[in-house]
Each structure stands twice: as C-alpha cells, then as structure tokens.
Amino acid sequence: MKKLWIFSLIVFMTFTQAAPDLYKVVYRKGDVSMTRSKESRKIFKGDFLIANDLITTSAKGLVILGYGENYRSRMKIGPSSELVLEGKVEDPEDNNEKKTNFFLKVGNILVDYINKDKDKNKLKVRTKTASMAIRGTEFFIHATPDGQTLVAVRSGVVLAKHNDKETGIPLTAEEGVVFTPDGSSGKLNPPKWYKDINWELNDYSKKMDFFLHGEGIEKVTLNEVISKVISIKAESYDKMQLQGEPKKWQQGCEKGDGPSCSRLALYLMRNGKINEIKPIVLALFNKACKAGEARGCVWLGRVEYEFGSKESGFAHVAKLCESKNAYACYTAWEIEKGRGNPGEADAFRKKAVSIMHDLPNLDETFSQFEEACQTEDPTACLNLGILSEEMDKASKAEELYMQACDLGSGAGCSNLGFLMQQQKKLKEANKFYTKACFLDESVGCYNLACLYSRDQKVDLSKQYLKMAISGGYNDWGHINQDSDLSFLRQSPGYDEFIQSLKGSKKPKAKK
C-alpha cells in the first residue's frame, strides 16, 4: 500500500498576499519534485511551498516560483537543479537582519526580485563557494557540482562574495563573476557566457524550450574567463608558479617596477585565500611603495585595515593623506563613509580633490568658479561641475554640465552624456555625446562610437571612432581593451580600418 500525503497548505490559496515564507508554483514543465521532512512528491502548477523545502528538477524539468508581496517576485529554476527554500533567516554579516534566503546546491536559478525597500538587502542566495546579497534586481546564478559559481546581473546591484573573502564584488548591469573553491575571476564586463542567459520569466503559455538557457553556460571553464585562479600553497613569493599576465607583472616587479608589484598584489588578493597570501601581498605592496608607487603605499594600510588591525590600518592611510597622497585621501573617504561618518568622510574627499587639482583652498576655488559661471563662462561652469562630481554631488554636477553645454562647451556636453549613460538613459546620452562631437570634443565622438558598437551598428561606430581620432583622441590602449567596442573589434575588416586610422595624420589630443 502507498500512503497518501495531502498538503494542508491548500488553505492558503485564498490569500491575496504571500505569507512571509510561502512560495507559489506559477509554471512547471517536466519532472519537478519537492522534499519535506525526508518525504518527497512531484509538484504541479498552483502548489504552495514553504521554508526548508528542497526543490529538485530533472534533466527535462523546469519550474517558476512566485514569492514576496502578492507573489510578484519571480524565480526560474532550471533543469538538473537543487534549491533549498530557506525562508527568513538572520544574517550575522548584517546585524542579524532577517532576510529571505535560498541555497543553490547545483544547477541554475534566474531571479527577478522586487523590493520596495531599496536601501536594504532583503534577499540572500548562497552556493557552496559564495553568497550574493540583493536589494532588488534581475540576476542569474549557476552552480556546478565541483563548486564553481557563475553570477551575472541584468539590472540593479548584487554584492557577490567568496566564502573565504572579507569583502564582496559589487555587480551591476551586464557584469558577472566566476567563483571557484580557491578564488574568483574578478569582475567580468560582460562575461563571455552572458549571451547564453535566457532572461524570460513571464510568458507561461510557451513550452519549456522557450525558457531554457544556452548551452554555453554549462561549458564555462576557468581558462575561458581568467588567466589563472591561484590557490597558493607556496611558503613564499619566490616559490609561486604564475602564467600569462601575472607572470609578466612578476617579472616587472623583480626589475623594480612599482605598478607591476601593485598589479600582482591586487591579482593575488582577488584570486587567492587571504589567510595564505597576506604576507606575500604586503611584501609586494611594500616593494611597490619603495619604488615610488603611491597606490602601493596606500594598500599597505588598506590591507591591514581589512584583514588585520582596523585602527593601525586607518592611521597609516590617514597619515599618507596628510602627506598629500590623493589616493590615500580617497581611500580614507571610502573607509569613513563605510563606517557611517559622513562629516569625516566629506573632509577627506575635499582633501583628495584639492590635492588632485593642486588647489590650496577648495572652498575658495569653488567660490571663484561660481562667480565666473554666473557670468556665463562655460569653462568655469565645466570646472565647477567636475569638482561637484568629484565631491559626490551628482545632481549639482549634472546641472552645471548642462549649463556649460548650453554655453557651447563640448566637454560639458560629453560629461553630461556620461552621467546620462551611468543612469541608463542611453537616448539622452546619445544626444549629448552627439552635441559634444559636433562641438569638436573628441571624447564625445569616441563615446558615441562605443554606444553604436553596443547597439551592433558597425558603420556608425566606425564613423564616430574616425571622427574621434581625427579630433585628437589617441588612447590606443583603451581602444584595444574597451569592452564597449568589443562588437566593433570583432567585425570584418576592423584590423585594416584601425591601421588606416593609426596611419593617418592627426592633431595632438586636446587637454
């Protein structure tokens, strides 16, 4: 005989709002089962699930859940996946704040999470190697049996953190990261496998194939996303075995090149276990500092602050700031802002801006630019906008860039376009970049080339890149690496096109 298991959860079907730990099956195809209290059964559309239920999908199974207020948030659980609905759990990393938790054992999930309280992380997803804190966003996570975790974001912000790291990696639109048991790839923008993600969640009239991701996600290997993930078991820096770019940095560092030492140290911090590599990292930053690389000097204090004594680490950074190290002042600003000290943070930011622009008195300079801007001096409005943006006053900067742009400043138009692009207002960004370009601002032309490359409009991208080079833009290293130009670089005839630009006679870049 077979015992019949009738779920009492059926009574919840008359509720208009979701209970805190209640999840509704809104779509299901193929074999999908749930396990509760060591007993399992298949689930169907309309079923309700509760905290601590384990969802298992077969190789030809897929399920979409609704949860949160009025079940408006959505989660797609792909084939061959196992997910635990952990419910509301206290987060020790965030003052024991209660958050909705999910644990992805293996497989993939795609989430559209709606959260009215944008200032707080209300959702957390864990895998074997990482955790993701979410406020409200669309994101994708894939976990492999061997502990590899792929994370990608379509909108919003996700703070992705390796289990062995103190700090996380903030990801926004079209950014991703790969975690392994030994480290991480660092931020990828965009990941090569981003194009294989199927973000569809809502058309339940379609067959299962409509919702599936591309096969590229299953084929991701470390070698495709990073040069080498390091798990250092060597006793010292001299015994490390490196490849690719890190090997070049190692060779440069050995020759006394400070930036190479800092790059290698930062690489090791991203990809190694900090408890194993901290002495090596500090030695590299110390070598960079002695070679005159200001960033290395600052990172000596930053590493101590993050992974040792916060008091002595911050004191080291603050002392460097007093000695007119702008990067140290910015670092002190970040630390004080993170500690919730806005007044102290603002003072450090003022010092950073003053040092960077060699200004003896920032407040006095602000006043001078304000007076000149009021007389419709476009350069003064532009400079005031730059200082305002560097002081973290984005709305004021936008207003001043607009004023400079209206007065005929191409740089003002270009900077305004960049602010619009940061806000995802791409039509507005295009408009201001175009105006900047026609005012002979080469950076505006270059940014237009980037926008058209992202839209896969090769001819227009080529046109504006040519205008940028003709106008004096000559940062070839950036052109060769800029992810926004990746589609243009992959287009037929690009090599010949770029060589023709390099060979043409160009004026010097404008400062």
Summarize the structure in short:
This protein has helices at residues 222-225, 244-254, 258-271, 274-290, 294-307, 310-322, 326-338, 342-356, 362-374, 378-390, 394-406, 410-422, 426-438, 442-454, 458-470, 476-481, 486-489, 494-503, and strands at 22-29, 32-36, 39-42, 48-50, 53-57, 62-67, 73-77, 82-91, 97-113, 123-126, 130-134, 137-143, 149-155, 158-162, 169-171, 175-180, 183-184. With 511 residues, it is of the alpha+beta class.
Task: Please give a handful of descriptors for the protein shown.
511 residues, 17 strands, disordered C terminus, 18 helices, Jelly Rolls, 17-stranded mixed β-sheet, alpha+beta, globular, single chain, Serine Threonine Protein Phosphatase 5, Tetratricopeptide repeat
Structure commentary:
The chain is of the alpha+beta class. The chain folds into 4 domains: 207 residues, Sandwich (Jelly Rolls), CATH 2.60.120.1440; 72 residues, no CATH class; 83 residues, Tetratricopeptide repeat domain (Serine Threonine Protein Phosphatase 5, Tetratricopeptide repeat, Alpha Horseshoe), CATH 1.25.40; 67 residues, no CATH class. The chain contains 18 helices and 17 strands. It has a 17-stranded mixed β-sheet that branches. Helix 4 packs antiparallel against helix 5 and helix 10 runs antiparallel to helix 11. The protein is globular and about 75 Å long. The N terminus and C terminus are likely disordered.
